[in-house]
């Protein structure tokens, strides 16, 4: 749950979007607003909602938080009983308005539009192919590719979607809306989450179940890998565009991205993190006085560590809730003199203590080093860093913003070297096996820890080779 | 740590301001920005900074968060080595721009200005008296009264301030700035906090010590009740305007207002809350499965309760971080259908569990009722509410926004009745004695729990009588 | 020269865009900003600029005036020596962000983009055809069609453009930019203006020559009907995609749209209006005391009328300069009581006078009626309305926002009836022959006066038939 | 009628405010909005409205145009049947929010507030005296002084106002509002305009009569010099606070500030300007081809010149209507290459012509020089500058922003030298006698032309002496 510029503040990685849809409900726009608000942690740079009143589709979108893009006036303008919406995180090169979703197709045969979470690994290949056939691309989002593929497929609309899905490789969770139908789609490896729920007399689709709770929807089930769910006036129908499916849910969803109150494939995120913390403690024998977590995403693991280790759980770090986009940054000189905006250490808690500091992951290492320093400045005598996941040593090509080895410190350093770098007294990670134990789903994608990718990588292959 | 409209969302009470000052530092404006940012939880409706370059005073202020009122351009415009700043919460009737602080006096003998936290109980009497002598008031803030009193006193500037202080009854912490001096002032009962620190080659003054940590200042000491501290080019000097002093620090600062990483009169806020939670548990014999806290202010007490009771501490409630001022509210119908924006219960944690829910206080009771319902909807079999303070049964006239008995549910209901009202299985409060044990400072103001006020109440006396 | 909501205030028609481009100049973005600022009267609802530094294209666009979409920060971000820009007026149904221009194609073979003024009359036919071949359309702008056509043509880039042009029927002036080339294109009937100039060591292209003056460019020549001008590092080259050309410049450009300081096809706009006023006077024998014009577009004609008639020219109507987009409107009751925001009559000028009121055109008649009333309320004894063009009796399909007969009062009423309707004492129009005399260009499109359209109308034909 | 940054663009002087009030009308806030909108040319930097519903006063104010400070929501919030409002131009040192008007006094005996146009010349003396008696000043506006004086006077409210007026020397037009009364006040020399009108069942007060036309009010009469008009539920009553009155209406109101459709002391502004142009022509024998005016304020004089001289009136200069506050400025290099934002010359009009260019006044000379150059660049063979007023050679201390001799070019140069400086072929001014002839009111203040001031100057005297 992060604000936009957190990456630069904390060195954390970013998820690249949340999707949400409602079908046949009253005030579809405002329910989407509430739902997207619950998914805001998945992307803070742009937001959009498209609604349909059964005849016509209206779309409003823009840069910023959902609360910045929409207000009462705009929400009220959007009549409709169906809606899809999107919150977006974007990398530097893709911050153009053309990439903000939903992306709409205004066709003489009927308008339709889509929202997307994930990353299509054969996007350049598909795009080049489509361009050679005469298509033009206004943005660089994968949604646009999906829409082009649909347009060029033959058959009924659901057949077109299935045809398009068969051409795309990678991680994707799409919601597609026509004026009177809605389609929920997941990739065949099940890399990105997408769930279905009842809402009023209709349905609700969301990247995370936490959005269901907020709008009062009742969870039905997850969309299956390789499945297209079609919701129309004649009810919900399921289509499978392939039989070659896996259940490679992204492990980072549990470890870092998802909200603790979400459940993914039946497993509550907080519970899995707490479990991870317990496992970390069980294989640990460090002598310490207190356990603290790095807020917010590591608090669950810290509680688990405390419970299993018997060491008291403490609030040793405070996060300032008012850091936002327009935030003025301290100058380098101010930073050196100790000006800190985001995290504070509670001196009276950590002073004179041997501290176990639990964090969810280490990406670049700079943040960990800064927090360790913060704790030592506040008087901690020892800082033992425990990471509730394995070393993040390989880039992700499925929707997480870490695309090179260079930016991953665990690709360059072993644990001992890294421990020295972050100035910790000791440093421990989990093993991949422990992670699987903490997250007892059918299967996980742990490629960023193992370097074993569940799909072909197409042009990204060269990143792997360059290493 | 609350956003503007939280009162309506949660029924919580509000602090009415934070003050901050720096003397003889480089980039005084941006350090004030960072300092006020750390105090943002004390007021989100308006903010302002006045700087002095030793010759001239510049003041910029406006409505909104500190990050909304200031940006790089405005901060850079404000040259100066001294600065005072303010964050403000305001009651409905006082939201005019005239009340936003700092309030400046542009006098032919030299400009000066002030920021204020607290409430002067003889404000109307003083104001009427001053008006009868020819003064005019543009706003309704107590700072304006202070400035008028200073102007009419005789002697050196510090003598004028001391004369003014002797006339004011109630709770106040002022920082006053002339073009080359700064004055920190506390009321004789010590009701509102104010502390002094070293910063670079100069000094820093703040309502809470958490702001010192953020700007890299080193705590020196608290300003004393009845003291005026004068900071000038010849150093720091202390003046006492009265000998009749008490140490009646507001108990609610520890219980609810202050940030957990602040220390007030040498006692860390988080530690006192944790202690309160332990005391609550020690006098409790409820049978339960887990302990949860209402985020954010009750987490410390919940941890303490968990530790003392041996019941596992859990994250059962999640707070949405992106709720802001411009937030669209669910309609009544949506609310009834379960649309909830602010807090979510984690069903997989609380379902089937007997839950001890720790909260810091109950004001109107509506929020507690809503949260209990949230937990029961999420499957909690029992909800035992434990409040880490005594029943809030009397209005506060010292800067907390609860000025009538009507809005205080504990003024109207006993504990059993209130337990039924909020639909809890059991409900327990602390005693005032336990509170004093948890907060071992010299003395506390517990008037909102006891109805015993440390000062005369002047025109507010009629509120008491009306009861 | 009109603000956004003027149509509703004055019943005037709207032009639908201005285009501007610079090639090989320093600070291309800020020169485009200045140029578009000079064209702001052609569209106030959205604006955008795309720049190229020879390697990469950057595009920023949004809703509002050019001064609202861009500021120093955004302009400075846009490096580049080439640029194209657009100001847009949009009809109600086309106000989506997808229609704001420039529209960019991000292709693996190189990015390119376009800006457009005009209206393609076979747009639906082309769009349907392209969709059937697999293209998708995100917006409803004609630029998007052009870009699709280009993409599907074969040959060099200029050949692709020429191929695309041959398929489009209607009115168009395009500027197309690749990373290192620029193309200026006009339709074969020459319905919309587009001119070329020298600027610094490079070139400048604009809808109107007034923009040349503002950026210091030196006029070279108009782009020819049916011509594609290619500007590249090897200089300017001309291509003609067809020989079947006409010179049907839109008469309304002279009468109403263009700025008086622009010259179109060598004829200054102010001079042609003045000439029209003189012709109006020469065929008139009304007895009156003064001549006034309706600001701003009719002042030139009023001066011409005054000169030819010998009647004194007076300032009888004042226009409020501060009416803007966010303007609060008077209620109906306030309007009836005489609350007027936009135009005021100077009573001391018109009181007791027989007034000749010169206006450029009558579209709905409501504005004329309101202004006549304004003058009579201010004491004018007679109001003789003289229109510096013929009756506007047929819809325009070439880029002017009047697409039905219903909204054109001259399609429903004769001159006498209209005179009664607007409550004038007498009413006279020009003849089409007089208009041609006032605007001595090679040929004019006068279809909105004559109902004779210079192109096939495709699906718009049914509007004509419905009449 | 100028935008904020016009001074820097054109070298023109600034008026310092417009005031407006309505008493006993429906929707007082929106009528004030419309009225202030008509007065916007008198100040574009800040605006405010205070309303009273007979019991309570509400005040909203801020920086920017009236359309920027208010929107439908804020206007609708302001219940009330009485209102006063203000538009403000401010000098650099006085741009603080404390100076934005109305300024309210919140007194235990009843709230009241004031708006002001003018300048009190003994302001520092009064302020120092008041401060010595214990008053504090938050801003530097003269309204605040007036409010302090009122507070300290004895008697009924109207007696307090009259007492205050007797103490103030200089130029002032105040509107003062209590919860149920309104007071209109002018200084004893009548330097600033203020008029009274009927509106609905109540009354309207305005700096200029053009605002009456816009809200549908019917002019009654001007407030007299030395008069206090009290409007209350028992009707309108007149009070005279002194018998030593003069009628020294500011000549610059006619020449430059006021809107042409306003009438001041019974004389229409446009008519007086036209008359001035005629007088200029009658004493002129220049041989020329055309007459042009510098838009907007000099068009009336140019028309008069044309009529009296027989030379044709032409539109030779066009002003861009979209220049606003946030406008990006051309760089020096761009400026040298001919980038011009504000004014354009129509080459086809002026090329090869001997031009008489009529302007209202010359302050710094830089603008005139720039415009002459513009015309010569556009091909004018001769430019004869005719100024419709006498040389502006002395500073104004009565509300016009020219407070030093240094900035007035006519204080330093004779006509011949100035003619050379602005690069005109010939240059002529009017005489003061001609100005009086053109503006046949009882008497005028022409101190900025004559150096003879109608009041004592107090501390401003030193400016005169320094010369």
From TrEMBL, chains A, B, C, D:
Which GO terms label this protein's molecular function in UniProt?
4 iron, 4 sulfur cluster binding; amidophosphoribosyltransferase activity; magnesium ion binding
Q: Which reaction does it catalyse?
A: 5-phospho-beta-D-ribosylamine + L-glutamate + diphosphate = 5-phospho-alpha-D-ribose 1-diphosphate + L-glutamine + H2O
Secretion signal span: none
Q: Which PROSITE patterns match?
A: GATASE_TYPE_2 (PS51278)
Q: Where is the active site?
A: 17
Positions with a binding annotation for [4Fe-4S] cluster: 250, 396, 445, 448
**Its annotated pathway?**
Purine metabolism; IMP biosynthesis via de novo pathway; N(1)-(5-phospho-D-ribosyl)glycinamide from 5-phospho-alpha-D-ribose 1-diphosphate: step 1/2
Keywords from the named record: 4Fe-4S, Glutamine amidotransferase, Glycosyltransferase, Iron, Iron-sulfur, Magnesium, Metal-binding, Purine biosynthesis, Transferase
Q: Which residues bind Mg(2+)?
A: 297, 359-360
InterPro entries attached to this UniProt entry: GATase_2_dom (IPR017932), Ntn_hydrolases_N (IPR029055), PRTase-like (IPR029057), PRTase_dom (IPR000836), PurF (IPR005854), PurF_N (IPR035584)
Keyword Cytoplasm attached:
no
Could you tell me the EC number(s) of this protein?
2.4.2.14
**Which GO BP annotation is one of this protein's?**
purine nucleobase biosynthetic process
Q: How is the cofactor bound?
A: Binds 1 Mg(2+) ion per subunit.
Matching CDD domains: GPATase_N (cd00715), PRTases_typeI (cd06223)
**Which cofactor does this sequence's record say it needs?**
Mg(2+); [4Fe-4S] cluster
Q: Which family does it belong to?
A: In the C-terminal section; belongs to the purine/pyrimidine phosphoribosyltransferase family.
Question: What HAMAP family does the record point to?
Answer: PurF
| Record NCBIfam families | purF
Name recorded for this polypeptide:
Amidophosphoribosyltransferase
UniProt lineage: Bacteria, Bacillati, Bacillota, Erysipelotrichia, Erysipelotrichales
